[in-house]
């Protein structure tokens, strides 16, 4: 039951990745391609312990390879990290663990400091997605293609307010601007790569976080 549940979650999580090179669905496989770099099993074990420290509940997902360099290995499906985060699919453990740390340590503190309310829900644009960077054909594979990234779009507050990155980044209310800059800055201390609206035009409506090898990068 547990395994079947995990499979179902994985298929839901990966539903966005159906486009092979010529529109053909890329069929996932359990067998790593020859060039695949294996995850360090000790790091994964430690990461799962760390994830538990934030009270996160999760399902470990089977390693999958999708062609076009895309994969989801050492990944989990987060079920809960204190508050709901929408649209989360497969994430490599360390990215999931950093997201849990950021949510529990930084987001609530910033929300209370600037907006006098707790965050009750975070809206994401998702995690795994087999595509090149910024969706530009021919560009390097996005960390989303390795289940190693998450895009944060909005925050719902206990007082009923909803703060979106798109409208809030340059909001007329300085408290909203300060809140978003505070959570952005806090993410830079926790993730390898953080790109927000100040980074480039492609990130006008979300904060991108990943644990790829290009960091540290904070824009
Ligand atoms: Zn992203």
Automatic annotation (TrEMBL):
Domain of life: Bacteria
InterPro entries to which the protein is assigned, alphabetical: Extensin-like_C
Region (Disordered): 21-41
Organism: Edaphosphingomonas laterariae
Name under which the protein is recorded: Uncharacterized conserved protein
Location of the Extensin-like C-terminal domain: 46-219
